[in-house]
Amino acid sequence: MRAALVLIDGARVDVLRDLLNRGDLPNLARWVIEPGGLTTGTTVFPSTTGVAYIPFLFGRYPGSVGVPGIRWLDRRRAAQGSGWREQWRAARSYCGAQGSWLNSDVSPAAPSLFDLVPESIAICTPLTRGLGPGANRIATRRAILGSAAHYLGTYEALDRAVARAWVAAANEPWRFLLVVFPGIDGIAHLTDPFHPRVLESYRLVDRAFGGFVSRVRRTGGELPAMFVVSDHGMTQMREHHDVAELLEQRGVRTLRHPVHVWRRGAAAAAMVSGNASVQLYFEPRSGRGTPLEESNLPQSIVDELVAMPSVRLAAYRADDEGVVIRTREGRALLTDAEGLVRYQPENGDPLGLGGYIERDDRELLALTRETDVPDAPRQLLQLFQTARSGDVVLAAAPGFDFRGPWEIPEHRAGHGSLIAEHMEVPIATNVALPDSPIRTVDLMPTVLECLDVPVPPGVALDGTAFSKTAHAEPLTR
Ligand SMILES: [Zn+2]
User: Fold this and answer.
1) Nearest 5°: phi and psi at 213?
2) How far is the CA of 10 from the centre of ligand 1 (A)?
3) Residues that place a CB less than 5 A from ion ligand 1
4) Structural domains in the chain, sorted by start
5) At what angle do helices 196-218 and 183-190 cross, to 10 degrees?
6) pLDDT along the chain (477 residues), means of 10
7) Of 12, 89, 248, 454, which residue is the least packed, with the fewest Cβ within 10 Å?
C-alpha cells in the first residue's frame, strides 16, 4: 500500500466544488471523489502556509510543537544583544531567508511522517525534516522559481515544475509521496481567490493528476491512497489595518518586519501571519522567556485593539489558567481540563456558542463547525500552549488584514484568521471518510494507518485517524 498527499496551498473548498460541478476537474472526480469523497475540514490557527503544513506532516498542532506563526518573536534571543544579527535572528520569519528554520523550530521530539516512513519523496515542500538523500525533489527550482514568483507573480512556472516532477515520480518505489502546489495561494494573494488565473491553477493540478494516474496504470500499478487537501482558505482584503503603525501612532515603538526588526527602544513587537492574524509581544527585549498574563498586559492598548472594526477577536492568557477571549461585545474564559474544554462567557458570547459549554474535544469541534469561527476553542488553546506565542493574538474580521498597503507585492487577498473562509479546507480522498467533522491534523494518523505504520510508543499525536473518530465507518478502500 502507498499513500500520496497533494497539498494545494490556499485552495478554497467552495471553488473546488464549483469546478468539480462544472466538470473542470475530471481526474479528481473520477479517481478520488467517486471511490471516496470530498468533505470540508478545518485547519489550524494561524491559518497560514508552513505553519498549517505541520498538522499534515507531524499530526500535531503548531502550538504543540513550538511554531506559533509564520512570523514570531524569539523573546530570549531578542534580549541577547543589540547586534543586527541577533535582532534579525530573534524576529523569526519563514517568508524569506529563514524559511528552512521551520524544520529546526518544530520540536525535535516530534517525528515527521518522513521519519516514520523512510521510503518518502516530497516535491516542493518547505518542511523537509526526515527526508532521505535525494528525496527532497526540485528544491533548487523551488528556491529559484519561488523567489521569481514572489516578485514577478510567475507562479504558473513553479506549478508546472511541480506537475512534471509529480508525473516523473509516479512509478518510483516510494511509500509516501507529498506534492505541494504553491500557485493558487501565490496568484490569489496578487489578484483574488476567484480570479481566472487562480481557477486555471486548479485545472493544472487536475491535469497533472491525470498524467500521474495514467503513468501508474500503464505499468499495471494500483493507485495509492490519495489525499487531496489544502492548508487554508482565502478571502479578498478590502482594508489593511496595520497594527504596528497604529501602535507607533500611539507612541509605542514597535519591532516588525521587514526593516523595523532593528527598531530602537521597541516597547512592542507585531508579528503578522497570513496577514489576517497578528501576535503582539510587549517589552520584546526584556529577556523574559515567559509570556504575559492578563493583569500584566497594557490594558488601554488591549482595549483599543479589541475595539477596532478589523478585529474579530482578541485572545490572551488568563491570570490563573486558560485563555481570555475578547470581542467588542463580550468576554469569555476558555479552559481545558481532563479532556473537557470549558467555555465560560462572562458577558456577551464572543464565539457565538449560545452560552456556557463544557464538552470533549470532538463534540466541541462538531458544535463550533457551523459558527463563523470554526474550531476556535481548540485552536486558541493549542496556540497558547507554546511560550513562543505572543502575549496577545488578534484574529481579523472578514475583509481585513493587519499589514499596511506598503507591502511589496501588496496582498489583495489573504488568510491567517479564525474566520470560516480561512479555516475551511477541502479534504478529498479515495479512502472512506467519517461522518463526523475532521481536521487537517487527522490526516497524518490516517496516512500511517493506510500504510500500516504504527505510531511509535511515547509519541502522542493531536489528530485521530478517520477510522477512530466518532461515528466513523471502518477504513476500507
Ligand atoms: Zn498565502
Assistant:
1) -60, -45
2) 6
3) 49, 185
4) 3-67+106-236+420-468 (3.40.720.10), 239-405 (no CATH)
5) 170
6) 97 98 98 98 97 98 98 92 86 92 97 98 97 95 89 92 97 97 96 97 98 96 97 96 94 90 91 96 91 97 97 97 96 94 97 96 95 98 97 98 83 96 98 96 98 96 92 44
7) 454
